[in-house]
Amino acid sequence: VTAEEAQAYANQGIPAIATTPSYKDGSGGTVSGHMAMIIPGSGEWSEDGKTFYPSSAQAGNLNFDDGTSTQTGFKGALENKQEIVYYVNEGSYEFIQP
Q: Which of 15, 37, 65, 88 is least buried, going by the fewest C-beta atoms within 10 A?
């Protein structure tokens, strides 16, 4: 799905994730892939207004659950020209706040 669709699904309580695969960095080393949950929010647009980055939550070197966009969480991958791919589970799962 697109980034905008992932955000819309998350806003409806439907699970959505963002991911990048492992890739080679500029020095030839392998960088592990990354995943984050897309969470309800408004996301943000890139400075040039061409790319939408959904609100997310993640754990790793940088931890947050405040809706920081995937532009921040996937900064290293984006700097290495990696595409963020979004997935949604349209099955019977739904996030319900405790």
A: 65
Mean pLDDT over the full length of the chain: 89
- Rounded to whole angstroms, what are the CA distances from 17 to 27, 53, 68, 94? 29, 12, 14, 14
- What pLDDT, in 10s, does the model give residues 9-18? 999 989 899 9
Enter the DSSP assignment of 12: T
Residue from 33, 37, 47, 95 nearest 68 by CA: 37
CA angle 54, 57, 62 (to 5 degrees): 115
Each residue's pLDDT tens digit, 26-81 = 788 898 889 999 999 999 999 999 999 999 999 877 788 888 899 988 888 888 88
- The continuous run of DSSP H or E covering 70 comes out as helix 70-73
How far apart, in Å, are the Cα atoms of 57 and each of 22, 60, 74? 20, 10, 11
Let me know: does 18 contact 38? Beta carbons within 8 Å. Answer: yes
